[in-house]
């Protein structure tokens, strides 16, 4: 989920907005589930730094040296996911998305119009998120997930919603901007067990959560049931982490929260 990821599964094409403002579109592979469904996240980034240098360095160091904390939740055994890079989020094997879920396009205007809010006051996180799903583009033969700009996050509509009585709801976001300045979702790496998290729905309802654990998974090892529609009611927050020493992120950092 990093705009700086230059792995073989990340491509970049130039786009031009009005008034000759250039932005870059990069596609990132997302996951494969038990059915072998694989997608790619499409990132639209901005050039605006978000944090002062001191905080940027602190978060970057935390991500580089991240460790697992907290108790396990009721996940099934992890299943190796055959994916090489990017945000490797396994698609569920229990739900067939409606046609509009596979064709949802999320640009900045749409994202702002339908945005809800994710906040974690202990780390200063306050970010809007939009609901996104899977789509298809000519560049890839497999489905893709559309992600908003780095200053926003995305709620996966191919997993449980915040209003559903069971199953994990998943909110994912890019860890940094194109200039390597940390983006808001990088702050989830600073969360500790017991910290409060709040997510408002599109209907204005505030859902309350507490951090249960933090886990770091290699891209190929993200548990299959990270997404789904059944099991305990959970909120999962995901961004990238790890480093290969060349500016590439190598892991997914997953914060699992339980209802407060």
TrEMBL record:
Residues 1-21 are annotated as: Disordered. The chain crosses the membrane at residues 27-45. It comes from Rothia dentocariosa. Keywords: Hydrolase, Membrane, Transmembrane, Transmembrane helix. SUPFAM superfamilies: Sortase. CDD domains: Sortase_F. This is Class F sortase. GO terms for molecular function: hydrolase activity.
């Amino acid at each position: 989920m990093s705009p700086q990821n230059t792995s073989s599964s990340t491509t970049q094409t130039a786009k031009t907005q009005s008034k000759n403002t250039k932005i870059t579109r990069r596609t990132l592979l997302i996951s494969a589930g038990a059915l072998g469904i694989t997608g790619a996240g499409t990132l639209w980034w901005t050039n605006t730094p978000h944090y002062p240098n001191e905080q940027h360095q602190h978060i970057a160091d935390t991500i580089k040296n991240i460790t697992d904390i907290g108790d396990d939740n009721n996940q099934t055994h992890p299943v190796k996911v055959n994916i090489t890079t990017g945000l490797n989020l396994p698609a569920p094997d229990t739900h067939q998305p409606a046609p509009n879920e596979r064709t949802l396009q999320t640009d900045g205007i749409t994202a702002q119009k339908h945005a809800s809010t994710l906040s974690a006051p202990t780390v200063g996180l306050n970010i809007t998120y939009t609901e996104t799903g899977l789509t298809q583009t000519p560049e890839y033969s497999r489905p893709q997930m559309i992600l908003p700009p780095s200053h926003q996050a995305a709620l996966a509509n191919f997993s449980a919603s915040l209003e559903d009585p069971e199953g994990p709801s998943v909110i994912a976001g890019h860890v940094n901007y194109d200039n390597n300045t940390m983006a808001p979702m990088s702050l989830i790496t600073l969360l500790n067990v017991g910290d409060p998290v709040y997510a408002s729905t599109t209907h204005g309802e505030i859902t309350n959560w507490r951090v249960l654990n933090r886990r770091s998974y290699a891209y190929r090892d993200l548990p299959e049931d990270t997404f789904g529609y059944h099991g305990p009611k959970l909120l999962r927050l995901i961004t990238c982490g790890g480093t290969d020493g060349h500016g590439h992120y190598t892991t997914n950092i997953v914060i699992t929260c339980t209802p407060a």
